[in-house]
C-alpha cells in the first residue's frame, strides 16, 4: 500500500444551526476581529448578521469589498485595513472568494511585502494571522484547505498559493447559511466540488484513503445536486458536507489539469470557477481515457456517471454548455491559454504526459 501523509488541523463544526455555537467556540483571547466578505453576501445572506451577533461583545470590523475572484490589490487593501485596526484574527464569510481573501489578508496583515512576492515563492517573515471560515456556498472546500487562489489582473492569470499555516483554525459549516444561494451558484459550486473529488482521485498524489473519500463525495454530489437545486434542505446539507470533504480531498490529492485549464475561461471570459471546470470536464476525461496512466480509475468514474448518461450529459442536464464556443472562446486565443496552463505546477501531478499540443487539442476539441 502506498504511504501517505494526512494533515488536517482545522476544527470543523458541521450541521444546521451550528453557527449559533460560534461565539462560545471561538477562543476569548481574540478581541479584535476583521470579517472579510463581499457585498452580495453582506446584503443577501443571513451569515454576516449571524456571525456578528455571535461575536458580541468583541470588537468587530467588516471588510465587505472582496471581489469575485479577488485580485492582488483587493487583498492588499484588506490587509491595510486589518493592520490599521490591529486585527488579531480574520474571519472569511461567503463563498470561495471571501474565504480565500481572508487567507490572503491574514498573510499580508502579518507580513510587509506585496502579495506577488509571496506568490512567487518568497517565504513570509511571520506566520499569518489565524483564519476562521464560514462558508455560504457548497463548492470550494476552502474552509478545510491551506490554499487560496488570487487573480493577477495584469497578466490575466489565476495564481494559487499553498501554505500549511493558512489552514483555518476553525470552520463553521452550517448548511442553513447556504439557503440564499441562487440556483446557478448551487449548480456551479456543486459541480466544482465534484471536480475536486474527481481530480484528486486521478492525481498522482492519490492514496487509498483519499480515494475512498473522493468516491463518497462523487456519489453524494451526483445523487443530491438536482434536489439541492430545488432547495431541498436535506440535499443542500449533503452538498455542504460533500463540498467540505472534497476540500479534504484536494488538500491531499490536489487538483490536476482540469482546474488549471478552467482558470483561463474565468480570466478571459468571466465564467464562474465551477462552471469553467464543468464545461471542460468531459473533454479532459476524454483525454484521460486515452492517455492517462490511470485508465482503470477513469473507467470507474465513467461507471459512476453512466446512470446520468455520461459526463457530458450530466453537465448539460444542469444547463451548463460543454462547448466553449458558446462562451465566446475562439481558436485564435487558445495559444494564450496554453502558455498559462503549461507552466503551472499541477501539470506535474496530472497522471499523463501533457504537452502544449495536448492542452491545445483538448481546448480545441471543446470549442
Ligand atoms: Fe475549484
Task: Report on the architecture of this protein.
The chain has 367 residues and is an alpha/beta fold. It contains 15 helices and eight strands. It is 50% helix and 11% strand. It has a six-stranded parallel sheet, sandwiched between helices. The longest helix is centred in the middle third of the chain and has 22 residues, at 208-229. The protein is globular and about 60 Å long. The N and C termini lie far apart (41 Å). It binds fe (ii) ion. Fe (ii) ion is lined by residues 140, 192, 196, 259, 273.
CATH class call of the largest domain: Mainly Alpha
Annotation, overall tally of beta strands: 8
Q: What structural class do helix, strand and pairing data support?
A: alpha/beta
Along the chain, the helix and strand elements come as EHEHHEHEHHEEEEHHHHHHHHH
Assign the CATH superfamily of the largest domain: Dehydroquinate synthase-like - alpha domain
Strand order of the largest sheet: 1-8-5-4-2-3
Give the rounded overall mean pLDDT.
97
Bound molecules: fe (ii) ion
Instruction: Give a quick account of the main beta sheet: strands, pairing sense, barrel closure.
Output: 6 strands, parallel
Amino acid at each position: 500500500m502506498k504511504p501517505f501523509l494526512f494533515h488536517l488541523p482545522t476544527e470543523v463544526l458541521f450541521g444546521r444551526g451550528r453557527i449559533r455555537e460560534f461565539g462560545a467556540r471561538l477562543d476569548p483571547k481574540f478581541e479584535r476581529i476583521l470579517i472579510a466578505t463581499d457585498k452580495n453576501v453582506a446584503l443577501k445572506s443571513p451569515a454576516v448578521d449571524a456571525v456578528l451577533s455571535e461575536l458580541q461583545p468583541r470588537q468587530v470590523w467588516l471588510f465587505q469589498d472582496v471581489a469575485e475572484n479577488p485580485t492582488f490589490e483587493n487583498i492588499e487593501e484588506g490587509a491595510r485595513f486589518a493592520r490599521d485596526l490591529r486585527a488579531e484574527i480574520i474571519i472569511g464569510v461567503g463563498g470561495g472568494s471571501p474565504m480565500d481573501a481572508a487567507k490572503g489578508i491574514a498573510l499580508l496583515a502579518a507580513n510587509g511585502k506585496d502579495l506577488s512576492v509571496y506568490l512567487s515563492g518568497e517565504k513570509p517573515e511571520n506566520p499569518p494571522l489565524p483564519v476562521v471560515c464560514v462558508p455560504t456556498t457548497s463548492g470550494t472546500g476552502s474552509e478545510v484547505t491551506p490554499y487560496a487562489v488570487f487573480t493577477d489582473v495584469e497578466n490575466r492569470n489565476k495564481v494559487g498559493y499553498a501554505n500549511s499555516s493558512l489552514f483555518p483554525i476553525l470552520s463553521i459549516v452550517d448548511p442553513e447559511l447556504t439557503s440564499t444561494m441562487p440556483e446557478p451558484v448551487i449548480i456551479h459550486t456543486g459541480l466544482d466540488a465534484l471536480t475536486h473529488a474527481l481530480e484528486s482521485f486521478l492525481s498522482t498524489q492519490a492514496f487509498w484513503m483519499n480515494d475512498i473519500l473522493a468516491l463518497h463525495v462523487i456519489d453524494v454530489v451526483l445523487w443530491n445536486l438536482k434536489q439541492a437545486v430545488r432547495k431541498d434542505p436535506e440535499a443542500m446539507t449533503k452538498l455542504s458536507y460533500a463540498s467540505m470533504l472534497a476540500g479534504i480531498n484536494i488538500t491531499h490529492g490536489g487538483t490536476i489539469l482540469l482546474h488549471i485549464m478552467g482558470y483561463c475561461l474565468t480570466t478571459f471570459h468571466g465564467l464562474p470557477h465551477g462552471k469553467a471546470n464543468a464545461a471542460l470536464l468531459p473533454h479532459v476525461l476524454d483525454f484521460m481515457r486515452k492517455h492517462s496512466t490511470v485508465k482503470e480509475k477513469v473507467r470507474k468514474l465513467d461507471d459512476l456517471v453512466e446512470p446520468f448518461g455520461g459526463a457530458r450529459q450530466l453537465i448539460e442536464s444542469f444547463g451548463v454548455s460543454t462547448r466553449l464556443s458558446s462562451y465566446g472562446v475562439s481558436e485564435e486565443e487558445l495559444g494564450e491559454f496554453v502558455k498559462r496552463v503549461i507552466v503551472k505546477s499541477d501539470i506535474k501531478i496530472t497522471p499523463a504526459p501533457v504537452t502544449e499540443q495536448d492542452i491545445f487539442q483538448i481546448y480545441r476539441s471543446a470549442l
